[in-house]
């Protein structure tokens, strides 16, 4: 009974925020509304309802130019080999 009512409330919060809220935000929203609920219960119910919040897209990393700095050969290193 309590899970059914809580599931409806979770789905309503999830849809009000266009599917962007995950377990943590929905849990805090429920606590702010006065519900006494554990975050693990919210997680279990969301998993049963197949609800998961949208994850932010990975940041695009482009690189222009050389890859890092190349150290000056101040100690006259010679890495060339004639045989293995």
From TrEMBL:
* Signal peptide annotation: none
Every copy of the HTH-like domain together lies at 2-58
Highest taxon listed in the record's lineage: Bacteria
- Please give the name of this protein: Transposase
Q: Which Pfam families match?
A: HTH_21
Residue intervals passing through the bilayer: none
InterPro entries assigned = HTH-like_dom, Transposase_IS3/IS150/IS904
């Amino acid at each position: 009974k309590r899970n059914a009512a809580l599931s409806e409330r979770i789905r309503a919060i999830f849809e009000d925020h266009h599917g962007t809220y995950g377990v943590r935000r929905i849990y805090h929203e429920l606590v702010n509304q006065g519900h006494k609920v554990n975050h693990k219960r919210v997680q279990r119910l969301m998993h049963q309802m197949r609800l998961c919040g949208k994850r932010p897209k990975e940041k695009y990393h482009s690189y222009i130019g050389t890859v890092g700095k190349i150290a000056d050969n101040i100690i006259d290193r010679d890495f060339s080999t004639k045989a293995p």
